[in-house]
Amino acid sequence: MKEIDFTGKVAVVTGAASGMGLMASQEFARLGAKVIMCDVNADALDEAANAIGAAAVPCAGDVRKFAYAEEAAKVAASLGGCDILVTCAGGNEARCCKSNVPFYEQPVEVIDWGLDVNLKGAVYFARAMMPQMVAKKGGVICCLGSVTGFEGDGIGTMYGTAKSGLFNFVKGLALAGGPHNVRALCVTPGPVLTRAAMSGMPTALGRAAETHELVDVILFMCSENASFVTGSNHVVDGGRLCMYQPYVAPKETAK
Ligand SMILES: NC(=O)c1ccc[n+]([C@@H]2O[C@H](COP(=O)([O-])OP(=O)(O)OC[C@H]3O[C@@H](n4cnc5c(N)ncnc54)[C@H](O)[C@@H]3O)[C@@H](O)[C@H]2O)c1
After folding, report:
1. What are phi and psi of 8, to 5 degrees?
2. Is residue 250 part of a domain?
3. For a pocket test of ligand 1, which of 71, 192, 199 has the largest count of ligand atoms closer than 8 A to its C-beta?
4. CATH code for the domain of 166
5. Total domain count, the chain
6. Which residues pair with 232 in a beta bridge?
7. N or C: which end of the chain has fewer CB within 10 A?
């Protein structure tokens, strides 16, 4: 296996102010890339980018807006063009919008948030960055899925819907990008300790992942070592999907 080296590469990471997006940004920079860090949380983003240093360029905005993706693409172009896109911005709409009610009671704004951040955010960024990859005759788009994309969620229903949409999205990107040596894939986590609450989710290994256990896979997938990987979904879940998961009705609807 080749040593991973991103020297001369330009990486764009969404959701870069925290969790896996932050650690992936730190690692891209450590391994030689310039990293454009994208997140809606401008203060946390500036702090994170400052801590990384000259290799990091913060670019704050909301991935629900295509104009923001285009702005990030302009920054990437000014650095030589995007080689790597990692879409981490996301979250379960019930948790992020603090709306813990079943789908059939969710305000439409919460439904829109779930679809727009988790699905359209990745679509917009891929649409904005991919022409640069095609022009450079190479690139990789890595979208963060979730096991919820297989399991479903009766409260944050758009989260799983959007994540399963990404599984198909990367297939389309792989077909469009293949002739230009542009790869696309999903890395799909089970529970990851970017939040302490994830420690309670059952897995075959009996624990949640440390953040680096996902970021190591993301970096591998974005490296030359994964040069034949495209159009595929890579589940990194400690065996969660091997386990039988009885459906637990949302508290509000349980009789
Ligand atoms: N942590 C887990 O257990 C887990 C499990 C499965 C999948 N995932 C997925 O992996 C990805 C990363 O997860 P994490 O736990 O590291 O995330 P996180 O919650 O630590 O970080 C998500 C980041 O996305 C940003 N963000 C949210 N809305 C945004 C918007 N509209 N525009 C721009 N940025 C926005 C947030 O500010 C935050 O910094 C997410 O897509 C998540 O759904 C996480």
Report:
1. 85, -5
2. no
3. 192
4. 3.40.50.720
5. 1
6. 185
7. C
Residue labelled with tokens 């509000």: 252
* Percentage above 90 pLDDT, the chain: 95
pLDDT digits (tens, 9 = 90+) for 162-181: 999 999 999 999 999 999 99
The token duo for 115 is 């679809």
User: Tokens 């599984």 label which residue?
Assistant: 167
The residue-averaged pLDDT of 29-39 equals 98
Q: Rounding to the nearest 10 degrees, give the CA dihedral for residues 14, 18, 20, 22.
A: 70
Beta pairing, strands 182-189 & 10-14 = unpaired
Residue 247 resides in a domain:
no
Q: Which residues line the pocket of ligand 1, CB cutoff 6 A?
A: 14-15, 17-21, 39-41, 62-64, 88-91, 117, 144, 146, 189, 191-192, 194-195, 198
Ligand 1, atom nearest to 41 Cα:
37
Please report, for residues 181, 192, 197, 252, the alpha-carbon distance to residue 200 in angstroms, rounded to integers and kept in the order given. 40, 10, 6, 21
Host domain of residue 111: 10-242
According to the model, what pLDDT value does residue 147 have? 97
Residue at 147 is within a domain: yes
> Are the beta carbons of 191 and 198 closer than 8 angstroms?
yes
Token duo for residue 191: 């529970």
What is the three-class DSSP state of 22? Answer: helix
The angle that helices 121-135 and 157-177 make with each other, rounded to 10 degrees, is 10
Residue of 47, 146, 205, 215 to mutate, ligand 1, most atoms within 8 A of C-beta: 146
Contact call for residues 187 and 217 (beta carbons, < 8 A): yes
Distance 38 CA to ligand 1 centre (A): 12
> Under a CB-based contact definition with an 8 Å cutoff, are residues 1 and 196 in contact?
no
What is the arithmetic mean of pLDDT over 21-50? 98
